[in-house]
Amino acid sequence: MRMRDPPGTFLPRNASARLRFSPGAEGKMAAPMSEGPPALEPGAAPYGNFPNYSRFHPPEGRVSLLPGGLLQSLFPAVARPLLGLDVGCNSGELSVALYRHLLGLQESKGCLDQPVAGKDLNLLCCDIDPVLIERAQQCSPFPASISFANLDIMDSSAREPILRSYLGRFGRSTFDIGFCMSVTMWIHLNHGDSGLMEFLSFLSSLCKYLLIEPQPWKCYRAAARRLRKLGRNDFDHFRSLAINGDMVERITQILMKDCAMELVCCFGSTSWDRSLLLFKSNGSNHEGGESSEQEQ
Ligand SMILES: C[S@@+](CC[C@H](N)C(=O)[O-])C[C@H]1O[C@@H](n2cnc3c(N)ncnc32)[C@H](O)[C@@H]1O
């Protein structure tokens, strides 16, 4: 399935070569080299769990790249509630912005608005940092539709009951869409190549669609450099990462070759020089999302 008329760059199934040369992915904007505010010690945020992350990497720069009516395009015939998983949600600002944007809700009108095109969206948003999750829970304007959970997504024994319990509330075993925004580098630095592969494989098995914003390699170098400046050792895995270089290209290849996903669209590049990519799973274990589904 292809979405109709989005403003992003559409790419064919085997499009990673073109992706490298698409204007959005090649955009040379004045992107910060780091993944955190200069004043914050990276040792204090070893997972990218920066407090106030959204102040220096505002959600609007990402959500504004997504076309209005995206959910309607992806799930034209689905009448049941759509389920989304936001991995590494920090304190929830991007999760809430995504929710509003995808449903066409105006911020000023809050939760009284009718969702666009009759779509009902529920989000499970998780983060490894309990303090960030507590703040997200306290500030959420949509507590009935957006759930926040403290979870290390790499801990399979912890994630399994949380995800199963959430999905079970809707009689489901998979999510319609996953969001992985500025998270891959932290998984990669903390869990190595095999951890990144396992993470991507897990997400592709769990989510029909995956919206992903990988950090470019220069951010890895900057994160390691900051750590060294503080007199600390590199991240455990930094020097041994064989998956390196063009991270958009590498992650695209992993998702397409190893995870049975296809690249649907590149929505362009943020002011931080990060590409926003939408993948779709070809796996058969998804309760899917397309014309055959009229589920309630
Ligand atoms: C750089 S922030 C991105 C926040 C948000 N997704 C955004 O783009 O605005 C990365 C987040 O991923 C979280 N994170 C890193 N490793 C994680 C893990 N193993 N499980 C869950 N969350 C994780 C961090 O705590 C942090 O809040």
Short characterization:
This protein has 296 residues and is an alpha/beta fold. It has a domain at 1-39 and 84-107 and 121-145 and 175-263: Rossmann fold (3-Layer(aba) Sandwich). It has eleven helices and eight strands.
Describe the main β-sheet briefly: 8 strands, mixed
**Ligands, ions, cofactors:** S-adenosylmethionine
Oligomer: single chain
Structural class: alpha/beta
The percentage of residues in β strands lies in: 15-25%
Q: Spell the H/E element sequence.
A: EHHHHHEHEHEHEHEHHEE
Uncertain regions: pLDDT < 50 for 5+ in a row? 1-33, 289-296
Architecture (CATH level 2) name of the domain at 1-39 and 84-107 and 121-145 and 175-263:
3-Layer(aba) Sandwich
In total, the number of strands is: 8
Kindly report the name of the CATH homologous superfamily of the domain at 1-39 and 84-107 and 121-145 and 175-263.
Vaccinia Virus protein VP39
Written account of the structure:
With 296 residues, the protein is of the alpha/beta class. The protein has a domain at 1-39 and 84-107 and 121-145 and 175-263: Rossmann fold, CATH 3.40.50. It contains 11 helices and 8 strands. It has helices at 16-21, 23-26, 53-56, 60-63, 70-74, 93-103, 130-139, 156-168, 184-206, 217-229, 247-258; strands at residues 9-10, 82-87, 121-127, 146-150, 175-181, 207-213, 261-269, 275-281. It has an 8-stranded mixed sheet with strand order 1-7-8-6-5-2-3-4, with helices on both faces. Helix 7 (130-139) links the parallel strand 3 and strand 4 (146-150). The model is unreliable at 1-33 and 289-296 (pLDDT under 50). Bound molecules: S-adenosylmethionine (SAM). S-adenosylmethionine binds at residues 35, 47-49, 53-54, 57, 88-90, 94, 126-129, 132, 152-154, 181-183, 186-187.
